[in-house]
Backbone:
């Protein structure tokens, strides 16, 4: 059965596509800010440290996604405080949080009988297994991110371009930065089901990075990144269906190919332009 | 008499380091153009940042228009030394300049049409009106500096605090920017740092030599002896008299 035919009849595939669209909206909204603020390393730290919360939640018999959300928020705030108070140590401390979070998660999962079976799905995603609760969580995260970014996008741009100038205008730079990190954390958690915590950063950054090569405003970058993420997710899902490949890694590879094509197109376009234009 | 800026007994040092500014007194009149000159590490940027409210002084007071600084921050326009990194950003000149209208915690912003008008006026003052739809990465170095200056002007500040506004750009663009800055007075008060004595002699009403202590001179008083005073008494003792560039007589 082809992907399109299966999509019309298989509820799990319809949920997967819907999850991909909701995930892409989150990527489109937050990816540009990860790019503009040059915080992909920080966002990667949040994504990987999330495993600590999931492991503890497994061990305590709670919801792993709830554990992931709590861990993501805690790590985001920790990274924010590190940036604001110990900027010189930011790189090392973020890397430490990244590794320590994963180590804690793996230890707790090791001590929890049966938890290891789910580990691969959280590391690399399991978009075909998303349930109604996952979709509702993604929808809620998208709504929160859309609202906050809609209200504060100019403030986010001001602190991303020039913190000193923003502080001179009386903007609450620390609070805005922490809010941005919290939004990144929520988006990362919402994407875990789609791409897994190992691959999630590629889904957040690559569509935005590809669009940034052509976009002429933050608005077009956001819309373009969202559309491209939807396209990559749907294409990855479709490509993975017939040969029964894992969907998450296929989606990420599609994102990477699109980004590489965008880079090549930009390079060729610049070469075609006359000198000085 | 009303001063645009009045500093009394200002002391400041970064945590864990010796004080960089001690007992600084300074009075700048409204509409005056004050240049600041001194060696690296003398505290020029720190002084500007203190006036912009980015640091709290260890001692002393700062008044803007004879009111405490914290009440008057909205009347100050600060331009940092480093231009924003723009190569990877799809941000237009107009978008950048409108950010200068932001003030404090206003999640919804102010009326956008008013901001657009103020940004356009600031761009016109910086002779960049026709570049408003350009991406920042499409500007030359001099144009980018003027766009950043326009962002500072967009809030219609009474006092402009400029930390090396023409660092890293070519002499022709530098001369153009300083001429534009000179035109800001007497409607605004301008305090600007430069490492170029010739530029300051040409454009400033007075010059503050800073090397841990502060000495105010007139442009005519900017001679070899003044430069020797500014650059040889620095605590680190490593700075030399800057090479005069042929940009001004």
Residues:
């Amino acid at each position: 059965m082809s992907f399109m035919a299966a999509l019309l009849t298989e509820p799990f595939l319809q949920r997967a596509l819907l999850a991909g669209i909701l995930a892409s909206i989150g990527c489109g909204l937050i990816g540009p800010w990860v790019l503009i603020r040059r915080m992909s390393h920080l966002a990667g730290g949040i994504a990987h440290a999330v495993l600590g919360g999931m492991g503890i939640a497994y061990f305590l018999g709670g919801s792993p996604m709830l554990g992931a959300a709590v861990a993501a928020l805690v790590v985001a705030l920790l990274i924010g405080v590190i940036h604001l108070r110990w900027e010189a140590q930011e790189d090392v401390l973020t890397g430490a949080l990244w590794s320590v979070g994963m180590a804690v998660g793996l230890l707790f999962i090791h001590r929890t009988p049966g938890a290891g079976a789910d580990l691969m799905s959280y590391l690399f995603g399991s978009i075909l297994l998303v349930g109604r609760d996952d979709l509702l969580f993604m929808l809620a995260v998208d709504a929160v991110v859309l609202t906050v970014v809609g209200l504060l996008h100019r403030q986010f741009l001001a602190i991303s371009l020039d913190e000193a100038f923003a502080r001179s205008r009386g903007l609450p730079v620390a609070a805005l930065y922490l809010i941005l990190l919290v939004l990144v954390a929520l988006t990362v958690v919402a994407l875990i089901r789609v791409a897994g915590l190992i691959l999630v950063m590629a889904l957040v950054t690559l569509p935005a990075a590809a669009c940034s090569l052509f976009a002429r405003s933050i608005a077009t970058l956001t819309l373009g990144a969202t559309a491209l993420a939807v396209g990559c997710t749907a294409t990855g899902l479709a490509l993975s269906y017939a040969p029964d490949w894992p969907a998450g890694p296929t989606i990420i590879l599609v994102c990477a190919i699109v980004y590489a094509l965008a880079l090549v197109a930009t390079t060729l376009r610049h070469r075609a332009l006359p000198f000085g234009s | 008499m009303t001063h645009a800026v009045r500093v009394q007994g200002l002391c400041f040092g970064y945590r864990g380091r010796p004080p960089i500014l001690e007992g600084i007194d300074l009075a700048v009149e409204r509409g005056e153009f004050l240049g600041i000159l001194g060696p690296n590490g003398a505290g020029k940027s720190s002084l500007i940042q203190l006036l912009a409210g980015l640091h709290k002084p260890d001692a002393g007071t700062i008044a803007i228009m004879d009111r405490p600084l914290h009440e008057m921050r909205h009347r100050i326009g600060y331009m940092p030394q480093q231009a924003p990194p723009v190569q990877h950003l799809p941000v237009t000149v107009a978008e950048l300049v409108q950010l200068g209208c932001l003030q404090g915690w206003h999640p919804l912003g102010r009326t956008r049409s008013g901001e657009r008008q103020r940004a356009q006026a600031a761009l016109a003052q910086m002779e960049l009106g026709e570049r408003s739809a350009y991406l920042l990465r499409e500007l030359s170095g001099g144009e980018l500096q003027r766009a950043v200056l326009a962002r500072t002007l967009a809030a219609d500040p009474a006092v402009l605090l400029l930390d090396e506004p023409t660092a890293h750009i070519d002499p022709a663009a530098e001369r153009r920017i300083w001429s534009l800055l000179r035109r800001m007075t007497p409607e605004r008060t301008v305090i600007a740092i430069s490492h170029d004595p010739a530029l300051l002699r040409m454009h400033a009403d007075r010059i503050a030599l800073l090397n841990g202590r502060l000495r105010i001179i007139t442009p005519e008083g900017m001679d070899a002896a003044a430069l020797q005073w500014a650059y040889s008494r620095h605590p680190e003792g490593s700075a030399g008299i800057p090479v005069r560039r042929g940009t001004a007589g």
User: Anything to note?
Assistant: Confidence is low (pLDDT under 50) at residues 236-249 of chain B. The interface with chain A takes residues 49, 52-54, 73-74, 76, 78-80, 84-86, 88-92, 95-96, 98-100, 102-105, 107-109, 135, 151-152, 155 of chain B (CB under 8 Å). The first helix of chain B runs from residue 44 to 51. The radius of gyration of chain B is 18 Å.
